[in-house]
Amino acid sequence: MKLGVFTVLFGEKSFEEMLDYVKAAGLDAVEIGTGAYPGNSHCDIDSLLKDEGKRNEYLKKVEDRGLSISAFSCHGNPLTPDDKFREESDVALRKTIELAGLMKVPVVNCFSGTPGDQEGAKYPNWPVAPWPTDFSDLLEWQWENKLIPYWKEIGALAEKNDVKIGIELHAGFLVHTPHTMLKLRERTSKAIGANLDPSHLWWQGIDPVAAIKILAKEDAIYHFHAKDTYIDQDNVNMYGLTDMQPYGNIQTRAWNFRSVGCGHSMQDWSNMMSALRTFGYDYVVSIEHEDPIMSIEEGFNRAVTNLQTVLITEQPADMWWA
Asked: Where is the Xylose isomerase-like TIM barrel domain (predicted)?
């Protein structure tokens, strides 16, 4: 496995400065935002799509530093009733898939999206309770009329461009659990898999090691985000795990994102790395920094230091003892 970083946290640096910083930190790969929520501070997608020379120059800057691009990422909501952001998200995703194919970047990361509750709705609607049965009926309508048709089309586009789609299992979107991930994959395309981020699993009560086993047995993990979550049980008792307080309310929130090792033990992280290797994932572990009480530099460096102690970087030897 290799260690990388989602470079959106270094958006204030130029492309070259960011690459130098990442290389100096001892990393192997970069995950680069191309639009929607992550922005595109390190990737002028339209310029790169138009000009092969610029694509080659871009890749050379990465490869000359001994780095690779693990994924392009354009997390948005291509199903939202908001016409403007739906189009922005959809266009960014389609362009990113095309660019990834041209540049031989194997994975495009994104969200599944969440539609409204009917045609002409104003806001997305994320049903998470089976009763009253209105919610179950709504969920079925969303899957059959919005989610599956859209991802069948995107899956075919990904196959055409020889690209894999890493959907991040994230709250607020229809695909947020191993079950919903595999359900969508089964109904659409094997080009669609997971960008697995344990920080979004812990607070749902999902064991990331178990999720790795479930998804990896189906060859459905295409990328991995390294971000931790601290769960404050006292605050859970007050607000529950579906806490709607803003992320800035760190003292009272039920859970907060943390740098690797600051929410769960390094034994937990070692178990995840072992599960990834055991069940066939031998690609990039990409650091994502969203720690509200650490600076970018401190949170990033803490994650690098901690992950370097548990990452499995070499191939196993023959079992000389067996």
From this structure: 19-298
